[in-house]
Amino acid sequence: MSFRNRLTLFFILIVIVPMVSVAVVVLRLIADNETGKADARVAAGQTAARSLFLRERARAGSVARRAGADPVLAGALVARDRAGARQRTNELLRSLRARRILIEQGGRVLVDTGSRTATAPAGLSLLSSAGGPIGRLQLSVVTASQYAGLVKGVSGLDVTVHRGARVIGSTLPGAEPGRLPQVGTVEQRGRDYRVATFETAGFGSERVRVSVLADLEATNSDLGAGRTVAALALVFFLVVAFTFAVLISRSLQAQIGRFLDAARRLAGGDFSRKVPTDGQDEFAALGAEFNKMSEQLEARLEDLRQERTRLEDSIRRIGQTFASNLDREALVEIVVQTAVDAVGAHCGRVQVREHRDGPLVQRALAGSAGELSAVLRTAETLALESSRPSRAEEAGTGALAFPLGPDDARPLGLVSVARRGAAFSESEQELFNYLAGRAAVSIENVDLHELVQRQAVTDELTGLFNHRRFQDVIAGEVERARRFEQDLSLVMLDIDDFKQVNDTHGHQQGDLVLREVARILREGSREIDEPARYGGEELAVALPQTDLEGAFNLAERVRSEIEALEIPLLDGSGILRVTASFGVAAIPENAAGKEDLIAAADAALYRAKRSGKNRTERAEPARTGGARAK
User: Is 393 part of the annotated catalytic residue set?
Assistant: First the structure.
């Protein structure tokens, strides 16, 4: 194949094929980017819609408590005066500026006044002055159209609110009825929209679906314009590349012969002959570089020696950074790889003890030990026995080992390297010892950091997670359960008559009771469960992937074990027995979010207290919201 044909093939392979591939990728990226923008806008709009829904529900909750405290309404409900309750409800609707009020009594609707398009209701259980239930009130302060307008004002996207297949509020004139997908593309009024939908509770047993829609016409227009620009750019660059390729090919053929002759002389070791450097182009510069090559060989050797020195300095600086690294896994990987590279080893490994009296466990490996295993073990054994850096040599192989931990104490770990062909020099051992020493300091810093982290999230008295950690855990588990549609349960317990224990036997005895109850709870929990001290004598445990019955069974087991406890009195006068009351709740049976889940479990706990203590109560089935009347 001629040189010209090779250039042509080279041009096709190096220029045309990559440019076409890049064009395909760019077009794809343009499409994905525009679609991604639409999805991001819809996702952001959905987030805003959820936040505004919760805000309006919170406002409704505040107003509902005012309505629930109204004595005239309460009197009408106690007397089962439906006309009086309806009249007072209409008055409250106007005075409180509510949009809709619904009151249920005995499982049936007693009063329902206001706009049927009201949404984001808050619920409230109504109790008589004697504490008995007299009904349930739901109240909304915003209509679906008002709510949709609020969302559009924040996100700039259209919103439709459906109850069943009916549109009860929309910013999209002429929005078509029917269920919109949770995520997808739909057609409305002859235009394509990207939609994201979430469902929430409405009045009574109704479910309301809120859909956020982004118009795809602008996206499709941007996509077409982007593709056109990309195609024109591809054609332009192909034409330019082809023109330059022809010109360069002719120039190369004229000059390549002279360089071939010069290259043959250089390949034979003749550096005395000069390469022609006619002209001012790159070939002239290339010829000048050829002429400098022989002069630079000796200087280059000196540069290599200096580079080695700079490399050692850089490695020492890397060693100084070990002390600030708080990622144990990443740290040991850096340690072993840096040590292997620094001393020219063929393999290396880091071994540490999981606890002070445990065996060494390999945590990082660089290269393959293979036939170097024997010399590695020899050096490691010497380091373990002497608690000092060690070196070993066997049949043309060499190894270094450095113990991690305090001097003259049992090593907490080892860093070791080995290589074939030659033993390690004194300078290499010194550099290796320096790096390993810095790694030991860094590992100690990691241990200290992890200890501080544990103390920050642990209750000192019980050894359980503290309240702040519990809030973080329950928030994360609720989000995970919602995302993957998994069960999540919460058990809350309160030690019965704990104040009497403190008052009778003292706070130290109370502390012992708390520790023993916490131990029972911790031992009764799985590894994935999260027991915590919620506050005072109240404990809690989050149970991922556990339904309501599973949580109830665990609570009963723990309750029985607490009841069987025999806690010695600190004054030696006998034993103390305690009991605890439990409340259990679960997602989705009793709640949809974190606050609802905690409130449901807490309400069940207090019901257990009121029902005689030393018992477990399940939370009430989830409804549209509510609060205990005061």
Answer: no
Contacts of the segment 45-50: beta carbons below 8 A, 24+ positions apart:
45/151, 45/155, 45/156, 45/157, 45/159, 45/196, 45/212, 45/214, 46/196, 46/198, 46/212, 48/151, 48/154, 48/155, 49/151, 49/155, 49/159, 49/198, 49/210, 49/212, 50/198
Is pTM, for the whole model, over 0.70?
no
Q: Looking at 56, 380, 477, 537, which residue is catalytic? A: 537
| pLDDT-flagged residues of the chain (< 70) | 1-4, 7, 11, 15, 23, 26-27, 30-34, 218-227, 230, 242, 244-246, 249-255, 257-260, 262-284, 287, 290, 294-295, 297-328, 356, 406-409, 442-457, 624-630
Q: Within a 10 A sphere around the Cβ of 48, how many other Cβ atoms?
A: 20
How is domain 323-452 classified at the CATH fold level?
Beta-Lactamase (3.30.450)
Cα→Cα distances 316→305, 320, 493, 617, Å: 17, 6, 55, 63
CATH numeric code, 467-618: 3.30.70.270
Q: Where are the domains of the chain?
A: 1-240, 323-452, 467-618
How far is the C-alpha of 544 from the C-alpha of 451, rounded, in Å?
26
Which SS3 state, helix, strand or coil, does residue 595 take?
A: helix
Whether residue 160 contacts residue 116, with contact meaning beta carbons closer than 8 Å, is answered with: no
Closest CA to 262 of 275, 252, 279, 277: 275
